[in-house]
Design a protein that fits this description.
The chain has 425 residues and is an alpha/beta fold. The chain has four domains: 63 residues, no CATH class; 83 residues, no CATH class; 167 residues, no CATH class; 85 residues. Helix content is 52%, strand content 14%. The chain is built from 14 helices and twelve strands. Strands 3-4-5-6-10-12 form a six-stranded mixed sheet. It has a four-stranded mixed sheet with strand order 9-8-7-11, with no helix packed on it. A two-stranded parallel ribbon has the order 1-2. α7 packs antiparallel against α8. It starts with a helix and ends with a helix. The relative contact order is 0.10. About 5% of the residues have low confidence.
Length: 425
């Protein structure tokens, strides 16, 4: 295959256009080509990516300003501006720069964290066409211009959310426990001290006045010693809860990160999928294991269970082993995402099998923290990075393995489960 032939090969279904066009627009940067050359299921796409990758010597110069695609055009005689992305998807598009990176553009606009000039910068400079399209669409809305949204081919992806996520529930539980650790011992201590002081002073109060009590050297010394001991006990009881509270704060922060990672992942998936898919969130299956399934994707190619991780630090996944760097050494991670994803896939398969729905469930680990380092080598369970999430989702859609009737039955069963859990909140 030569370079000209490679440029004519089409990319994944989520952006089904020739590689040459996507390369000229700047969408196909070196990291995406490397991903396709290694992971694309389509052998033709895999070979084409390898050919183009070899020809790309300086990927940073592949995008020229004059070659950028203008995504919004004025139609003569029409007051509306046609846009190439729906406003819903535009608002859900992650912001690409700075401290707000990864947050939906719509939320940032509403909270005034980004301004019109920021949208203009993204519309002009972003290498991702979808991000540019979103910025332009939101600029038009900001300027109170009428827009004409594209007609969705298969509609929008449907999202079904069960009860609060496991991360959110655990975060609430730890916060409640932290309050109890501080409040209960302190309340008991203060009550006990008050009763003890009253009992110790009662004989003196019965026999002499308060002024007489404080004037007595022995009584004054006893009261001082008692108050000193009470102070030391109070400090002791405050110190221990404070140390426990620090550990609980770390746990709460970890679950908060997990919740944010799940939210970003869903937003990215919404942009990559269409109405042929249903996304289920926070599904808790019946049984002893109360851990929920972060995300379940049900579509024509099959079913995928995503275990989302937003860990901080440096990690590596070799085969079925997960480790993190501690100083100059590697230590076994406290949780094994690959085993969690496999277990969740097995549990979901058994849950559906109870209604004679025999389908293969694909386990996946989603690494949602771009700032953290992850090295993957021959993983036992597929690992998707947040950056390549749209490509990974497009990569799985090779053929229709589930009929419409099968998808309907599976969706009904999961919908019913989610409705039951929502009512039990």
């Amino acid at each position: 295959m030569n370079l000209e032939e490679a440029r004519k090969v089409f990319w994944l279904p989520n952006k089904h256009r020739p590689l040459g066009e996507l390369l000229d627009e700047g969408y196909l940067v070196q990291s995406r080509l490397e991903w396709a050359a290694k992971k694309a299921y389509d052998p033709l796409l895999k070979q084409a990516a390898q050919v183009i990758l070899e020809s790309v010597k300086h990927p940073e110069t592949s995008v020229k300003v004059e070659e950028k695609v203008k995504t919004v055009k004025v139609q003569r005689g029409d007051r509306s501006w046609p846009i190439e992305i729906s406003l819903e998807k535009a608002r859900a598009t992650p912001w690409p720069y700075g401290p707000n990176k990864g947050h939906p553009m719509g939320e940032l606009i509403e909270s005034k964290k980004i301004l019109l000039k920021d949208l203009g910068t993204v519309a002009e400079n972003s290498w991702d066409p979808k991000t540019r399209q979103a910025a332009i669409a939101l600029m038009l809305v900001w300027l109170e211009q009428a827009v004409k949204e594209p007609t969705p081919v298969a509609g929008f992806v449907k999202i079904v959310t069960s009860r609060r996520s496991y991360s959110e529930r655990k975060k609430y539980q730890f916060a409640l426990l932290e309050g109890l650790i501080f409040g209960v011992p302190l309340g008991i201590l203060l009550t006990a001290e008050g009763i003890s002081i009253i009992n110790s002073l009662k004989p003196h109060l019965n026999n002499q006045s308060v002024s007489g009590l404080t004037s007595s050297p022995a009584s004054f010394l006893a009261l001082g010693i008692f108050l000193l001991i009470a102070l030391l006990i109070t400090c002791f009881f405050v110190f221990i809860p404070n140390q426990i509270s620090k550990k609980l704060d770390k746990q709460i922060e970890a679950y908060q990160l997990g919740e944010e990672g799940e939210e970003r992942t869903v937003q990215m998936i919404v942009q990559a999928l269409d109405g042929n898919w249903i996304v289920f969130r926070n599904v808790t299956l019946p049984g002893r294991n109360k851990g929920d399934l972060d995300i379940v994707l049900v579509g024509p190619p099959g079913i995928w269970v995503l275990e989302v991780k937003n860990y901080q630090g440096e990690y590596r996944n070799i085969g079925n082993t997960w480790e993190y760097r501690h100083g100059s050494t590697w230590k076994t991670a406290h949780a094994n995402p690959s085993k969690q994803a496999s277990s969740n896939a097995s549990r979901l398969g058994n849950f559906l099998l109870a209604d004679n729905l025999k389908v293969w469930i694909n386990p996946v680990v989603v690494w949602a923290n771009e700032a953290s380092s992850l090295h993957v080598d021959n993983p036992s369970v597929a690992v998707w990075s947040y950056y390549h999430l749209p490509d990974e989702v497009g990569n799985i859609w090779q053929s229709e393995k589930l009929s419409e009737e099968e998808r309907r039955k599976i969706a009904e069963k999961l919908n019913k489960l989610c409705e039951t859990q929502n009512k039990a909140k």
